[in-house]
Specification:
With 68 residues, this protein is of the alpha+beta class. It has one domain. The chain contains two helices and two strands. Strands 1-2 form a two-stranded antiparallel sheet. α1 packs across α2 (26-32). The radius of gyration is 14 Å and the shape is globular. The protein starts with a strand and ends in an 18-residue tail after the last strand. 7% of the residues are buried.
Amino acid sequence: MKEYITKDGDRWDLLAWEFYGDPYLYVVLLEANPDLKHYSVLPSGKKLKVPIVYIDEASEVSPPWQRD
């Protein structure tokens, strides 16, 4: 688990994109930081827990012509 100190303008989806490359993984951040879930735009100076997420590329959905 990593830690991150928020800055002005930080949003859950933008942080998920920064850390995981997928804005929809904001749920992972919300679950790790339930005390801050009521914020849509995070205040600066808050300490966030950032779980490490391993994404299995083989499990990603790809078009039929790209599948093995």
